[in-house]
Amino acid sequence: MQLHLFDQLPAGFLEAEPETLHTCLPGPSLIRIEGEASPPLFVSTLLHGNETSGFYAIRDLLRKYSEEKRPLPRKLILFLGNIAAAEKNLRHLPDQADFNRIWSGKHYPEHHLAEQVLKLAHDEPLFACIDIHNTTGKNPLFACINRLDPHSIHLAEMFTSTLVYFNRPAEVLSRAFSNFCPSIVLEGGRSHSPAGTRTVAEFLEKVLHLTEIPDAPNGGSPPAIYHSVARIHVPEDSRISFNKECVQKDFCFVEDLEAMNFKEIPENTLLGWRHNPAMNLSIIDEKGREVESRYIRYVENEIRLKQGVVPSMFTSLITAVHQDCLGYFMEPYQIPDPSLT
Ligand SMILES: [Zn+2]
């Protein structure tokens, strides 16, 4: 899969919508945009074609600077990932790999795309990397980090005081970039939320104005950092629903599952019902091990928590559950180095 390179914004970009972006970008594209300070800020978005806040935020910001005929305060390298899926408002097309699972490994054609981007990114110093996503379920705005270095923490903290530290999935863009520059993920709430887009745009403009990334906290209360410890999957061929009456399905989950996101959920809480005892949920820890029995207890057909957890990204969108996962379990994380808090 080919990466397209641009030295300036292609014609039509500032008027495009995610669905029409393919008319000015023939596919995954890296666009260099001039600005006053170096090194450039790397911003990635539309790795998932139906997560549009990052695109709208960056387009609105570039429109503003273009209308005011001002250069950006810092150079920018913009990576726009899955243009073909954005046209169809899908996470990825059925025959494509997930563009945020291709940043290590070699088996998909899309791995070649990630290699080209990483090679170019390696060739010059970067100020930081910001990858922008949306969640399908109800979540607060939050930021993710893959390393607990002060620069990544404090950059993320400029966006929100809710941070998630994770190492699985390991094949994500932010983790690959965290090997050579401060790297964060913004989760801008649900796609098409104007408030989320505005917050992302304001944050990007603030970062473009920074002369350096703070290595001390910004004075407010310390961020809440959660460590994402396990990912919950349903069996590939299972039929699921989010309504108790769905006895013909293999699994039914409680209707308000998403309301549990980022809350401390006690042991024994009911998550749903299993109507097909031949199937189990799969819960994978940070080391890739199956740990379902550590978290889940089946009481007759009820699915109950065996220990207290803080869930995140629980979603009741059935296609998202099958394409990605049902959600994550997290634990509050204490930063070991007191100088970081
Ligand atoms: Zn995403």
Give a description of the structure.
The chain is built from 8 helices and 17 strands. It is of the alpha/beta class and 341 residues long. The protein has 2 domains: 4-222, Zn peptidases (Aminopeptidase, 3-Layer(aba) Sandwich); 228-332, no CATH class. The strands form 2 sheets. Strands 1, 2, 3, 4, 5, 6, 7, 8, 9, 13, 16 and 17 form a 12-stranded mixed β-sheet that branches. Strands 10-11-12-15-14 form a 5-stranded mixed β-sheet. Helix 4 (150-157) links the parallel strand 6 and strand 7 (162-165). The protein is globular and about 65 Å long. Bound molecules: zinc ion. The site of zinc ion (ZN) has 4 residues, from loops.
| Global morphology | globular
Strand content: 25-35%
Structural domain count:
2
Percent range for helical residues?
Answer: 10-25%
Gyration radius over CA: 20 Å
At the third CATH level, what is the topology name of the largest domain?
Aminopeptidase
Sheet with the most strands, sense and barrel status: 12 strands, mixed
Discrete helix count: 8
Order of helices and strands: EEEHEHHEEHEHEHEEEEEHEEEHE
Proper CATH architecture of the largest domain: 3-Layer(aba) Sandwich
Q: Low-confidence parts lasting 5 or more residues at pLDDT below 50?
A: none
**What is the count of β-strands?**
17
Distance between the termini: 43 Å
Mean pLDDT: 93
Q: What's the level 1 CATH class of the largest domain?
A: Alpha Beta
Q: CATH homologous superfamily of the largest domain - what is it?
A: Zn peptidases
- Give the oligomeric state of the chains in this entry, treating copies of one chain as homo and distinct chains as hetero: single chain
Output the structural class.
alpha/beta
Small-molecule binders here are: zinc ion
